[in-house]
Design brief:
four-stranded antiparallel sheet, disordered N terminus, Immunoglobulin-like, single chain, six-stranded antiparallel sheet, 533 residues, 3 helices, 3% helix, mainly beta, 2 domains, Neuraminidase
């Protein structure tokens, strides 16, 4: 839901603080459909710094599609369906851009081939087209790795903040890890592998915890004891790793690894399923040698397969920044939790009913765009949804209004909703000098500099100062209103463009020719306004 708001300078700081509470359970979120029509979409990403395109991976067709929000167009970036085997949990399973993709054109895919074996392969973007992957440039980084079963193949790949490429392998499949592969250091299954893709063949990272330089499996292993780390991610701000590890019959698991970790962790499968002892051999349940989960989800309510997500760092959900989002493939539920610094998620909130995504979605993945905005990938509906806060009342009064010749001061307020799509915000000033020229102006920075008979509290912030229309005269009461029209310059384009996620500060300058304070102009208080979609 989107609620219209009305804020005036009469609202106290306490009221505004209460209104803008960061209690996640009190926030009104919504899911907005971005694009649809995909065949079993599995993942979404964007190249670093690219705000114009979303890349969407289709698992069974082994196609990578590009969606361009500005035009609403969709095209195929690459199709490797002829070399990818699908069915069950096989197919095109992972996709990652090199951190220097803009200059070196490298990207990586993880898939099961037509023999059912896992592959990690590097490709190059076409030198002549930003929208085309060159299938002739394949370089095998790792594989083929024979998979004993068609499930628990893992396949998620992500670059960490250390510039290394991580690849998650499931335990090989069937149920209860019949070969105890996750605990066997001679088996690839149930491991997190780590590659130095810039170091040349064999691409092993020499600081991996079990590295010997032999070129064997141990040179690549980062951690072990995973059942099926289907989706994992790195916090773009801290480099911390978050993993959604799919459970067996009872529990689903979220695991956490700080960026400072040097690897070698054992995450407990098959003797533990999240916090539960399974009774299976291979390791010792609750041993100090194991790294415990930070959160578990039971199979009540239709849950059956966790989908790890991201720690949110975007702009469209300002009250959700720093919370970890995750979901369940079977129930379609979506939660977020707050890392509490003690190896646990606290204040876990179920957002499913609030988001109200229609249908029986199968959440195969979450995705991040270049700005850190969060998306839900729905395989059953072939849809991509973006998560946002329903437009909140994000306006705060700050700065002291200068005393004018009438004995009072000028105070500004806004009416309407600070929503780019609704475009209905009106800025109003009351208490200025009547029948005198004044103007509203806005900028990115908050400052406090004596100016005229007041304080200039809006700065350029390296971007500029922008007028909201030409100067105009106040009315008989010293009031003035101005529609902040986002379809008109300077708010529509260029440096002063107002976009969802932006925060701008606005103030009113006005003439005061009768003042005896040493200057013939003054300024109002100021307001900070954060805009949503």
């Amino acid at each position: 839901m989107k609620a219209s708001t009305y804020l005036t300078a009469a609202l106290s700081t306490f009221c505004l603080s209460s209104l803008l509470s960061t209690d996640a359970g009190a926030q009104d979120l919504e899911a907005n459909l971005v694009t649809s029509g995909y065949s079993a979409p599995l993942y979404l990403s964007s190249p670093p710094g690219d705000n114009t395109r979303l890349f969407i991976v289709e698992q069974s067709t082994a196609r990578i599609k590009i969606y361009k929000p500005a035009s609403g167009s969709t095209l195929t970036f690459m199709d490797i369906g002829s070399i990818v085997g699908s069915g069950s949990e096989r197919g095109l399973l992972g996709f990652a851009f090199h951190p220097d993709y803009a200059t070196n054109r490298k990207f990586y895919v993880s898939y099961t081939n037509n023999s059912g074996s896992s592959m990690l392969v590097q490709y190059l973007r076409s030198a002549s087209s930003q929208d085309t992957g060159d299938t002739s440039t394949a370089t095998t980084i790792y594989g083929p790795v024979s998979q004993p079963y068609s499930n628990h193949n893992g396949g998620c790949i992500q670059f960490g903040g250390d510039g290394m490429l991580y690849l998650g392998f499931g335990d090989g499949g069937s149920a209860n890890d019949p070969g105890n592969r996750a605990q066997n250091m001679g088996q690839t299954m149930g491991k997190m592998l780590r590659f130095d893709v810039d170091g040349g063949s064999p691409y092993s990272a020499s600081d991996n915890p079990f590295y010997t330089g032999s070129g064997g499996l141990s040179d690549f292993i980062w951690s072990l004891g995973w059942r099926n780390p289907w989706r994992f991610s790195f916090d773009r701000q801290t480099g911390d790793m978050w993993v959604g590890d799919v459970g067996q019959n009872s529990r689903e698991e979220i695991s956490f690894e700080p960026a400072s970790n040097s690897g070698g962790g054992n995450y407990g499968w098959r003797c533990m399923e999240a916090y539960r002892c399974t009774g299976l051999s291979g390791c010792t349940c609750n041993s100090a040698a194991l790294t415990p989960a930070v959160h578990e989800v039971t199979h009540s309510g239709g849950n059956c397969s966790i989908t790890g997500g991201y720690l949110y760092r975007g702009n469209l959900m300002p009250n959700m920044v720093g919370r970890y989002f995750f979901g369940d493939y079977c129930s379609g539920k979506i939660w977020s939790g707050q890392p509490n610094g003690t190896n646990a998620l606290s204040n876990v909130v179920d957002h499913t009913s609030d988001l109200a995504i229609p249908g029986s979605e199968a959440i195969t993945s979450f995705g991040e765009d270049a700005n850190g905005e969060l998306y839900v990938v729905d395989a059953s509906g072939g849809q991509i949804w973006r998560l946002e806060e329903a437009c909140p009342a994000t306006a705060n009064s700050y700065c002291t209004a200068g005393v004018n010749s009438s004995g009072g001061g000028a105070f500004i307020s806004i009416s309407g909703t600070p929503s780019v799509s609704q475009n209905n915000v009106t800025v109003e000033v009351a208490g200025a000098i009547n029948n005198q020229f004044g103007l509203f102006y806005y900028g990115a920075n908050q400052i406090s500099i004596p100016f005229g008979n007041g304080f200039r509290c809006v700065g350029a912030g390296g971007i500029g100062i922008f007028r909201l229309g030409p100067p105009a005269q106040t009315d008989f009461f010293g009031d003035m209103t101005r529609h902040w029209d986002l379809t008109q310059a300077p708010s529509s384009s260029g440096a002063g463009a107002v976009s969802a996620g932006d925060t701008w500060n606005v103030q009113f300058w006005y003439r005061d020719p009768s003042s005896t304070q040493g200057s013939t102009f003054n300024l109002s208080n100021a307001m900070e306004i954060s805009w949503c979609q």
